[in-house]
Amino acid sequence: MIHGKHKTSDRYSLAYLKRLIEKIDPDYVITEIPPDRLADAATGFANDGVVTEERVARFPEYVDVLFPLTKTLDFKIIPAAAWTAPMADYRRDALKRIENDPTRAKDWRDYRAALEAMNQAIGDASDDPMFIHSAEYDEITKQGLGPYATLFAEDLGRGDWESINKAHYALISAALDHHQYEHARILIMFGAGHKYWFLGQLNLRNDINLIDPEDATVEDGASAWKLDAYFEDTPDMEAIKALLADHGGLGDGVVEELPDIDWVAHALEGLGVVRCGRFVLYGVHDADKLPNEEGDIPIRIDANQAFGTGHHPTTAGCLTLLDRFAGWAPKSIFDLGCGSAVLAIAAAKLWDRHILASDIDEKSVEIAIENAAHNNVASKVTALAAAGFDHPDIAAAAPFDFVFANILAGPLAELAPAMADHIVKNGRVMLAGLMAEQETKVTAAYEAAGFRQINRLDHETWPVLLFVKT
């Protein structure tokens, strides 16, 4: 987490931060950079070796450490800051009005007193990496920012503490969802004050493993290393001690006996059976737990590298909305951005139709084909690699009566005109992957392309929309 003293601190310096990121060796770094600023920052760095983009240049952690590390480490920077310049200006002006308003004098005093108490409680540990990443620090910042969050919420509009954290986290969550099945190592690099709020949300997820701060800090010398070794039988500790002694200060080692459990089953415990109306999704490890109720449509989707096991609200929402279709069975169906092909498989089983499915990721296409075979619909599901509608087989199969598109809000909006070109009059398109705050933009794009919304599955974060082409 960024703490503001990296340039002056001896304990948590820019050099320390560099070693820390090198130790973590992330696949992705989610940053407090606005999505509309990253391209300019990256282009400037690529061309001149310097980050000059105004917003990003404020952070030496990014300018002097993160961007230079892109030359030696293989990771992708993901922008996730929801702040905009108008929001910042509005917040600054609103706080100035409150400060100068005699009727708000008590609110301002309480706010300043809470900040002062927070700073005193943190003291000179504000640049201690272990303290910054501790539960004690989180509680102090939560209490210290409490008055700011509650007293000024109405004054600050979309820039109030709760709203901006929700907006930041929505972008973070979308990034985590997008890379959910890659087994990726992801570093979130935000201002330290946001950490307690983000952790409250991250701890609700069952698809990520949070790294212990002690395992993510670095020290000079041998104390920075930890070696884990696994043995089927009790090891010869004297031989191990002798071996460790030859490598300078690694300690004597500790023996820990692991419980005798099925570790594969243990890892899969979080992926249980999911019911979405008639559709019952399960992994092969849960085949003996199916409810087997009359009318059920079982779908086997094993956890893999393709999105779509039914545990995410977008997939579950699409299946729930699909379950509401009874008498009407479309003739030509396309699953765009199929991932695991769970929607294509569901449609093939529900309607007994041939389904064309595509994904931009070739690995997902391989998994989609495997899943169709697992569900005995291999002859009814054709999966291919394509971006959008750009494939001769898609063009040949169009126009479609029904299209699934469970992807992301940006591509959904961009594809609206092409969607209209590839779907019949009165054809349906089911859209998912957009977040609630992105719904207006996506809806406007499809209405402009000649669609009318006819149904919506409500969800606090991930709504599912159904449109008809007029």
Report what the structure shows.
GO terms for molecular function: methyltransferase activity. By secondary structure, the chain is of the alpha/beta class. It has 3 domains: 1-218, no CATH class; 222-258, no CATH class; 271-469, 3-Layer(aba) Sandwich (Rossmann fold). Helices cover 41% and strands 14% of the residues. The chain is built from 20 helices and 13 strands. The strands form 3 sheets. It has a 7-stranded mixed β-sheet, sandwiched between helices. Helix 1 (14-24) crosses helix 3 (60-69), helix 5 runs antiparallel to helix 7 and helix 14 runs parallel beside helix 15. The longest helix is centred in the N-terminal third of the chain and has 18 residues, at 105-122. It starts with 13 loop residues before the first helix and ends with a strand.
